[in-house]
Amino acid sequence: MAVRPARGLRLVLPWLILGVSAALWGIGLAMTPQVELDDFGLLTVLPPVWFVGVALVVGLCIWGTVAHRMFSPRLISASLTGLVLMLYATPALLASVPRFPWTYKHIAVTNFISGTGQVDPSIDIYNRWPGFFSLSAFLGDVMGYRNALDYAAWAETGFALVDAVLVLAIARSITGRARIYWTATLVFTLSNWVNQNYYSPQSFSYTMYLAMCLIALTFLRNDPIRALAGFEGRLERFSIIQRFKKRQPTPVAEKWGQPVMAAQAGAIVAILLLQTVIVVSHQLTPYMAILGLFPLFFAGYFRARWLGLGLVAIALAYLVPNLAYIKGKYGLFTGFDIFANTGYKPPEPGAVVLGTWVLTGQTLAHLAAVLTLLTGLLALAGFVRRIIKGDVRTTLVVAWLAFAPILSLLAQSYGGEGRFRVFLFSLPWLSIGVAWFFWSGPVRSSKAVAGATAALAAMALLFTVVHFQPEADNRISKDVVAASQWLDMNTKAGDLVFDTKYFFPHLIGPNYPHFLQWGAVSSLVEYFKKADGDISVEGLRDYADRLRGAENNYVIISEDQKRDAVERQRFEADYLPRLEGLLENGVAAENVYSNDTVSIFRIKSAR
């Protein structure tokens, strides 16, 4: 029987939109100029055609989840995959080298392990938690990529895709309603503004954590202990009363279910192995996993209650031998002040004056808090609504997993990043809560469609602004990376390197331990303060001899450093150009490396 034209168009139109959006996205990338980014990052550089392409695929994803007849799994999978690629791959495709200054120390550790074939715990904390780096070095060698710089940039897109798939699988293990698990995956994609997908052990460990949760939810679900079963009963009676007052029909609750017994042994082994991999890869993630999963094992929501103790034992067994190092270098606890550990600072009196607010890139960055609050409040409403609807057990488990990461702030700020990790580990479960808020009713209502459409569109807008605004701070120039590689290959232990306080990726190659030695890197800012305008090659050489007495002293001067000195007023704007001129013409200095924007000079010691 022939397909009617209207029905045929309805089937083909979404695929056409997806194809057009992909084409517009590609054209937009090709049209994006390679210019110096300002405070607004990529927001003012990407051409309108790029935004149109992304808007089309966002609209397509929303349409696919809210429509009366949802898209086919193949179509909505393709749409979400396209969305993840467009949002998360764009910055990497427009950058000539891996983004984020802090990525390069991870590249350095991987290259060190690949070059030496071993780890050295005496070097730094990364060699004490080498799981991710060792695996990356092994896979790189197997595939013929011995320099992690060659593939690190694709970690952002790769982790984003894998994490989205895992969140989809987690949501599917909890509910059989397609509208809920696709919406949860879309919310996760549009709310993950934390920028933790880069080449790092924390990104890898986070993916392992999601896999661990998926296995527990799929194979180890169980009835809780009697006390919690009684608490659930009271909540269920409350939900019945509320539904009676509102004259609502009793919905079909999601079944917590009983897993297949034959798969449980393999699931237990897999969880223990995943925890072991996480423990040897990252310092924080094992304890975030314990905060969420240990109480659920102990309370009986998952089978093999001893498994929660197993997770704790593996983490402590690895921590104890490294405890003195952690306490000496970083400190084990930063206090029990949850507000201090989140980095919260109360506003200063009179800090905000009406009429003085100006739209800048930094003010746009505050929209991350808006996106976080929007996601959290909708999820909280979803948990409450789900309880009222009578689906108590599943909601309690998901709500606990969303709440548990907050407890980490009672002990650690994690170098000021604790609040970001809290949101990241809560996000998969918050995303499910948001989906529950809109789709917990027995039927799809027009209010739910309007609310979900508005919320998802707002999330897409907020994410786009927050994700692409700080790009100027996230980029490293190709010339700087090339100069850094030259330094790694040509300097030796005992040399002294001068730069400014502007970031320069000294840690990039297998010789990075040289730069970790005390006094190996010094700032020209301090020299300029002592010189007080009397800048000379001889004066810098004497200053270097007093600092370390190195045979070779290297001075890095780049256009980025000059620009940063002016913007941040680190020293007089003419100091670096003056020093560069003196080094170029000085008898005691030699230009040993140059490219378009970076020069490296060597000054021999006078001793």
What secondary-structure arrangement, pairings included, does this model have?
Blueprint: H1 5-31, H2 48-66, H3 73-94, H4 103-116, H5 125-128, H6 131-143, H7 155-174, H8 178-191, H9 201-219, H10 226-246, H11 264-279, H12 285-298, H13 306-329, H14 338-341, H15 361-365, H16 367-389, H17 392-403, H18 418-439, H19 446-468, H20 471-474, H21 478-490, E1 496-499, H22 513-516, E2 521-523, H23 524-531, H24 537-547, E3 552-558, H25 559-568, H26 575-585, E4 589-594, E5 598-604
Parallel strand pairs: 1-2, 1-3
Antiparallel strand pairs: 3-5, 4-5
Helix pairs in contact: 1-2, 1-3, 2-3, 2-8, 2-19, 3-7, 3-8, 4-6, 7-8, 7-9, 8-18, 8-19, 9-11, 9-12, 11-13, 12-13, 12-17, 16-17, 16-18, 16-19, 17-18
Structure description:
With 607 residues, the chain is mainly alpha-helical. It has 26 helices and 5 strands. A 5-stranded mixed β-sheet has the order 2-1-3-5-4, with helices on both faces. Helix 22 links the parallel strand 1 and strand 2.
